[in-house]
Amino acid sequence: MKITVIISAHRKGRELECVLTGYAMQTRKPDQIIVAQDGRDPMIGAALEAVRRRGWTIPLLYQNQEQRGFGKYRALNRAVLAASGDLLLFTDGDCIPRDDYVANYVRLMRRGIFLSGGSHVSIPEAYHLRHDLLEAVRDQSLFDYGYLSAIPGFCKSANRLTRRRWLARALDVLTQRNAFSGSNSCAWRDDVLAVGGFDEQMAYGGGDLNMGLRLNHIGVRGVRARHTLVSLHLDHGRSYYCADKERANHDWNRQVRHGRLVLPRESQICDEAVFNLAARA
Predict the structure, then answer these.
(1) How far is CA 265 from CA 67, 91, 201, in A?
(2) 8 A C-beta contact, residue 268 and residue 74
(3) How far is Cα 276 from Cα 168, in angstroms, rounded to an integer?
(4) Relative to the CA of 69, which of 38, 169, 198, 261 has its CA 20 to 30 Å away?
(5) DSSP class of residue 260?
(6) 89 bridge partner residues
(7) Does pLDDT of 8 surpass 90?
(8) Cβ distance 46 to 121 under 8 Å?
(9) Are 228 and 165 spatial neighbours (Cβ–Cβ below 8 Å)?
């Protein structure tokens, strides 16, 4: 099976370079990576050029668009349409994957589910802005508990980063939850198309959950494996957060849940979604 990694990027070229370096270190390389940017920022292009100069070999597609408010989900839907993989791994441009990240997604994925790594292990912004992390990504020392626990403000347990497969799976069973996470989840492309992709009307806060709810409504169950699917989040402020818009998102998600709705209110791929649903019926 082929897997496409879709990276949502926005004004974080330095962080994106670390993320792409992480994918270059994978034991199982992605078959395609799409960097989907809401807006047009030269820092993103500079990061892509930097990794290409180092002998980048993974097929890489860069998409950007005119920014009109919060357009992350519009950018992701464009990437879904352009993706060549059977599996779509959704993540963000500030989430660095451990070297077994893609391999574990491919190993655990099966029909009838979407997989989620859930919440990330975060590196405080005060630290990563002052330190060059590229070498620690290349040699994977960034994922050692000894390295991370020495960072002021880091507070995760060693089990969250274990490489013991049996222990990670046991802990995953104890912490299962079916929520879709846009920064650490994987779904079959035809399932994403069947529900019409992401709801482009949604602002920040709840849009990822919306995708998971609609996948549930076509019989796709969420499985979380946060101890197995490890990535590190380069933490940051959220100036784009709006409490009123988040409340509106959650109100809409309640309607989606109770009404067992499948299609979004607005999406570039709704026509294809209707076709996919008709074919399933």
Answers:
(1) 20, 23, 7
(2) yes
(3) 36
(4) 261
(5) T
(6) 5, 186
(7) yes
(8) no
(9) yes
pLDDT tens, residue by residue, 10-33: 777 889 999 999 999 999 999 999
Task: Classify burial at 204, counting beta carbons within 10 Å of its beta carbon; exposed 0-12, middle 13-18, buried 19 or more.
Answer: middle
Dihedral through CA 128, CA 131, CA 132, CA 135, nearest 10?
-90
User: What's the one-letter identity of residue 258?
Assistant: H
Contact of 198 with 73, CB cutoff 8 Å: yes
Interior/surface letters 99-136, b for 16+ CB within 10 angstroms, e for the rest:
bbbbebbbebbeeebbbbbbebbbbeeebbeeeebeeb
92 SS3 class = strand
Average pLDDT of the segment spanning 216-238: 89
Length of the chain: 281
pLDDT digits (tens, 9 = 90+) for 201-214: 988 878 899 999 99
- DSSP single-letter state for residue 110: -
